[in-house]
Write a structure and sequence with these properties.
By secondary structure, the chain is mainly alpha-helical. It has eight helices and two strands, in the order H-H-H-H-E-E-H-H-H-H. It has a two-stranded antiparallel ribbon with strand order 1-2. A hairpin with a 2-residue loop joins strand 1 (about 130) and strand 2. Helix 2 (about 40-70) runs antiparallel to helix 3 and helix 6 (about 165-190) packs antiparallel against helix 7 (about 200-225). The radius of gyration is 19 Å and the shape is globular.
Length: about 250
């Protein structure tokens, strides 16, 4: 948040801010645990669920707070967080009511956010310094492209009637990693000015902020490109059968 702070807020706004930051902190811790432990194990599943709920709550709370600030970018960012964690979770654990019309609605939202982000990105590019409301044009265009790829992935999933094997796991992993990147980027980079000067070591903060992106690239290389599921105990017997059949062929 840029204009309102916990120190200067009262009432429901103060409660919303405290809940938002508390949820985001829990999401950071749980997401980091889920990222480093064995995938599919009990700790991974529990920390992943905590991350999903906490990150979804942080994103949902960010929407009304950002709307109060008049910050359209953060409103879109909050919606995007909820979108990524929900579609990541339902890729491996469908919920009652998920699928069908809801998936179409989410895909439409993703395409809409991508279009809006591209527009803001090009507006920012035309400004002096290529910055709009403190956000560089390159970052806006990067987020727009990621959102567009996610929306295209939704369309392909709907047309295919669902995903199986490595494609299903890749969808889960990259969306969870990107949702965690939104959290780490917002915390370590976006709030850098609030870090006390004696410990504001910028290279470290930037590295922590972008670390989930490197994890995302690793998992895409391993699961999507190499289709290597060995050691991923999240894989169901059917997934492993699919992998064995591909090797035989």
């Amino acid at each position: 948040m840029e204009k309102v702070t916990i120190a200067t807020s009262t009432g429901l706004l103060w409660l919303g801010l405290v809940s938002h930051f508390g949820s985001a902190l829990i999401a950071l811790i749980a997401g980091t645990i889920a990222l480093v432990v064995a995938k599919g194990g009990k700790l991974h599943k529990k920390s992943g669920m905590v991350f999903t709920v906490a990150m979804g709550a942080a994103g949902a709370l960010a929407v009304p707070i950002a709307a109060y600030e008049g910050n359209v970018g953060s409103v879109v960012g909050g919606i995007l967080v909820v979108y990524f964690v929900y579609t990541a979770m339902t890729a491996v654990k469908p919920l009652p009511g998920s699928g069908g019309a809801l998936d179409i609605a989410l895909m439409t939202v993703a395409f809409g956010i991508a279009a809006l982000s591209y527009w803001y990105g090009f507006v920012a590019w035309s400004r002096h310094g290529h910055v709009l409301n403190g956000v560089p044009a390159a970052m806006r265009l990067f987020l727009a492209t990621v959102c567009l790829l996610a929306a295209i992935g939704d369309a392909r999933t709907l047309l295919a009637g669902g995903l199986r094997g490595p494609r299903r796991l890749a969808r889960h992993l990259w969306r969870m990693c990107f949702a965690l990147f939104i959290a780490t980027g917002s915390f370590f980079i976006g709030q850098m000015k609030f870090v006390p000067a004696p410990i504001r070591f910028m290279p470290l903060l930037i590295a922590l902020g972008v670390a989930p992106l490197f994890a995302l690239l690793y998992w895409m290389w391993r699961v999507r490109l190499r289709r290597q599921l060995t050691g991923l105990i999240v894989a169901s017997p059917q997934d492993m059968d699919d992998q064995l059949l591909r090797r035989v062929r």
